Amino acid sequence: MEILKLIGVVVVIIGFAIKFDTIATVVIAGIATGLVAGMTPMEILTTLGTSFISQRTATLFVLTLPCIGICERYGLKEKAIDFIRSIKNATTGRVIFIYQAIRTASAAFSLRLGGHAQFVRPIIVPMGEGAAAAKYGELNEETTDVIRGAAAASENYGNFYAQNCFMGASGTLLIVSTLVEQGYDVTAAQIALWSIPIAIISIVVGFVRTIMIDKQIAKVAGKESENK
Amino acid sequence: MTFAQILTEVFSAIIGIIFALVGIKALRDEGAQKKITTAAFWFVLAFTFICGYWLPKWITGACIVLMALLTGIKGVVQSKSDVPDHAEVRANADKIGYKIFIPALVIALGSVILTTLGSKVPALNWLTSNNCICIGGILGLIVALLMTKAPIKYTVIDGTRLMDNVGVTGILPQLLSALGALFTAAGVGDVIASGVSAIIPEGSKLIACIVYCVAMALFTIIMGNGFAAFSVITVGIGIPFLIAQGANPIIVGALGLTAGYCGTLCTPMAANFNIMPAALLEVKNKYTIIKSQIPVAIVMLVIHIILMYIFA
């Protein structure tokens, strides 16, 4: 029964879906797959171990942590906040777009700068809502939801689409180690280079999206003032 | 053993030492829960990085099973870190200013420049891509220490603090490529490939690109994790239907993972990106962020398919 070999895929899907411990899920999936395919426990351990050792490269990002940690202690996040706060006279969409651009650049340089808790809630949302309130007066809940959703989303776009531009990013290293393990000789520098187009495109898409957000705000914020 | 390999082992050992220091931090934390199992996890991981290369590989395999056991019983937790005090950080920020971004630029640009150098100058061929990331990290650290005049001890304090923040999932990429290797050894890729071959007409690169990118996104939506989807879908679809047919592995790989992230934007399974922030921002509907992201995710997925079709 060839199809039984997919048990590992099923284990991964279920394990991640029910939020079972990720490390344990992956290891169980591997062992189950090996057993179904008729490998001996020793062969399974050897295959796992060999690949784990040759793919230690996927964990190289650890060597960048002491530097980033010290920079954090000496004000990395604070200076980013200072910079964002210095933006004046922008529309809500523009504030959110500028944040996405900064987040994209910081992800590409592996600065762990963003964060919904550290940036979006305390800085971007108040600035975005302030800009809208200056234009439309007191904001209704529908408007604040649009602004908050878009602000949180901009954090995710910047984070996701740009992180692989950094050679030492764990996603970049995952791509390298997966392909090398399968016999294709690719390097982190090549993957990082070919991750740049998507990062740039995501900024362009974000720009268009925030123009739409400004229009949407005009619509939902204006709606209530008509009712008044 | 070449010089490049020796260097790689040295860097692996340094990473191993960082892991061991996280374990020691847990042991020293008086109030910590589960400190024995937490420390055990980090020490076993450190052991595989420092000694694994020189020992029979089944030993590392057994270590992996042991680590999975420790995380599976929820035995690994964060221990107390020396978190910088807010006023102290503010004062530091005012003193140093925007220069604080320089060390990070040194890491990113340094590793790129060194890699380029290594690929151009034969005598420097030990400057492999991977070694350069490590050298970049160390150069950045030196610049940071010189610039901030921080006491050296913060290398350990802040390094272990961040490592503990990243936590056990930091080894997930490495573990997933090991899973990919097992899948290949067991023939899982072939099974998926034979199933998918029913929908991909032979030689149709466009349909192969669509199936690969959409499958990446869908698997990520189901699992909530693009990394896990990447190893399964790339082994099962990306390699047999694109790379083995002559597509460029660099472009397929680079675009494949971010195609998966289009799925991350659409799924409540990625709770820490999409659902928890909604609570944090006090929005009415917990799907507000996902709703805002879906149009962008769809546009980006289509762009991924087009780029892969044209360039790969």
- Cα distance, first to last residue of chain B? 35 Å
pLDDT averaged over residues of chain A: 88
What Rg of chain A do the Cα atoms give?
A: 23 Å
Instruction: Figure out the total of helices of chain B.
Output: 15
Average pLDDT over all residues of chain B: 90
- Low-confidence parts of chain A, pLDDT < 50 over ≥5 residues? none
Largest sheet: number of strands, sense, barrel closure of chain B: none
Instruction: Work out the strand percent of chain B.
Output: under 5%
Derived structural class of chain B:
mainly alpha
Q: Largest sheet of chain A, described in full?
A: none
Secondary structure: helix percent of chain B:
over 70%
Q: What is the succession of H and E elements of chain A?
A: HHHHHHHHHHH
CA-to-CA gap between the ends of chain A?
69 Å
SSE succession of chain B: HHHHHHHHHHHHHHH
The parts of chain B where pLDDT drops under 50 for at least 5 residues are none
Estimated structural class of chain A: mainly alpha
- The total count of strands of chain A amounts to 0
Number of E-state strands of chain B: 0
Overall, the morphology of chain B is: globular
Q: Provide the gyration radius of chain B in Å.
A: 22 Å
The percentage of residues in β strands of chain A lies in under 5%
Describe the protein's architecture and organization:
The complex is a heterodimer of chains A (228) and B (312). Chain A is built from 11 helices and no strands. With 228 residues, chain A is mainly alpha-helical. The radius of gyration of chain A is 23 Å and the shape is elongated. Chain A folds into 2 domains: 2-54, no CATH class; 61-227, no CATH class. In chain A, α1 (7-17) runs antiparallel to α2, α2 (22-36) packs across α3 (41-54) and α6 runs antiparallel to α11 (196-227). With 312 residues, chain B is mainly alpha-helical. Chain B folds into 3 domains: 3-72, no CATH class; 86-150; 187-311. In chain B, α8 (172-186) packs across α11 (226-243) and α10 runs antiparallel to α11. The longest helix of chain B has 26 residues, at 3-28. The interface between A and B is large, with 123 and 152 residues.
